[in-house]
Amino acid sequence: MRETKYWALNLLAGLLILVLLAQHMAVMQLDGWLEKWLADWIPPLSWPGLVERGTNLIQMVSYVLLLGLGLFHGFYGLNKILAEFIQGDQKRRIIRLGCTVMGILLFVVGTTVTVGFYLVNG
Amino acid sequence: MAVSEKTMRPSGILRWLGGGRRGLEGYLYVIHRISGLALLMFLMMHVFFTGVRLLGEEAWSGLMEMANNPVLHFLEYLVYVAFAFHAVNGLRLIIIELAFGIGPPDEPVYPYKGSIHKQRPLMLIAMVIVGILIFAGGFDLVAMGH
Amino acid sequence: MTDQTVTFRVRRHQPGQEDAWQEYPVAVHPGMTVLDGLQQIKEQQDSSLAWRHSCRMGICGSCGMVINGQPGLACNTQVLDISDRRISLEPLSNFPVARDLVPDLEPMFDKHRSIKPFLIAGQQDGDEPLRQSPRQLTDYLQFSYCIKCGACMAACPTLASDADFLGPMPLTAAHRYNRDSRDDGFDQRKQSLGDHHSISHCHYAAECSKVCPKGVDPAKAIQYLKRDLVLDLVGLRRRPGPVPQGSPGTPRDDIPKAPEFTVKKP
After folding, report:
1. In contact, C101 and C50? CB cutoff 8 Å
2. What kind of fold does domain A2-121 have according to CATH?
3. Prediction ipTM score
4. Is the Cβ of C143 closer than 8 Å to some Cβ of chain B?
5. Contact A85 C191 (CB under 8 A)
6. DSSP E strands: which ranges in chain C?
7. What whole-number distance in Å separates Cα of residue C129 and Cα of residue C243?
8. Boundary-marking domain end, from C41, C70, C103
9. Among residues A63, A112, C102, C212, which one has the fewest Cβ atoms lying within 10 Å of its Cβ?
10. Is the pLDDT of residue B13 over 90?
11. Which pLDDT band, with edges at 50, 70 and 90, does B141 fall under?
12. Distance between CA atoms of residues B119 and A89, nearest Å
């Protein structure tokens, strides 16, 4: 039953990522269009653009949320696919542990950077 | 689960492709998995590369200078393509996996028109949206030079 | 109408030996099924060729095999419908092979058994008849037409990479019983349904529904099963019952009485 819970959370995470990542991707990948439409547009990858987003509290929280949800969704999926190819409960447990550790590690790194940037430049 | 001594004999990853005989949804299943894995690989690199901004403006500008080449722009576009597909197809999957858009249980009458036919408009709309997003991103890359 | 020759390309398997393809020219006439072709080969060309069949009319589910790359029943696939030159025949993929075109279906039936494919009596046991409304019947009837031929299991891409995945047939059977208003076994079944190798590996490739020879639509059943499991998780699942009892009504007096039993009950 626990698996059903993770799976349902994975669907929910997918939905939330869709909203948060759509905003992120629009800013990053469709910047040519946004530049056309928005008057005070700062290029997203320039340092001022970075500071503008990175020091906005709502944007910072949404980045941390997106990172957490994205890592959960991604590593859950990776774990599922790897568990299909690798037989044996012992090996599958190791994969699950590996995915969890990697996910937490990346979350810590990403959060440190995002929150650190907010504090240093804010 | 009661596990027997005999197990299924999985026919392997090539069977994901089904010898070219899968239905459209079968291929979407494969592409969804591959695009998901690609996005995760990118996310892992992304976390480390964007971490450079913590080292200050100079380090960041240096990295951006290095990344400013057509090959990386194209690879970045591929990430966007994977995102566009995975997001829209994922939304379609969430709708279907909660049993919406596939029709109610029904008496099977030959020729069988089951859930595949019922959900096909949803699938086609999703793929059209993916197509528009991919085109918009491609236009941004090629014509607008971003 | 004259017969035409179609080459049957059969994947032969002998235990302990490499698989090999063998070709048989078969004189085919319109209306002839793949199973008829196999019978003809056995009678006239090669008596060693093995496959499994029984009813010859799409009911028993014995003759499931991969025909031109698609799992299906040999008895309800007409040769000229799929090719007028050559067809390839292989045992069902994802199953161990016993010999030639005979798959070993035991792993599938083990999985089937694990989801308790029977009515589990709950609150409504007793001598009362178990009434069911037409709406309640429709809820699971489609999924009860499964003949366990294994075509869906052979088509499933998840089973191609995960031998432990329950697969479309057992999951459909689980939903068939879960949705039966006479059943009370959801809580027992959800233990194995919530397993690592269950619903979370299905992403609606719908290959199972595409190849099902009986229109059972396993992919549909699995999505409804997922919905039930999610609703159960958030405490919103409603039991398909209770069985409508209603009043027994008054018997019509113009119905003649049933004749006496010819054999007396002991």
Report:
1. yes
2. 3 helical TM bundles of succinate and fumarate reductases (1.20.1300)
3. 0.90
4. yes
5. no
6. 4-12, 20-28, 64-67, 70-73, 86-90, 97-99, 102-103
7. 10
8. C103
9. A112
10. no
11. confident
12. 36
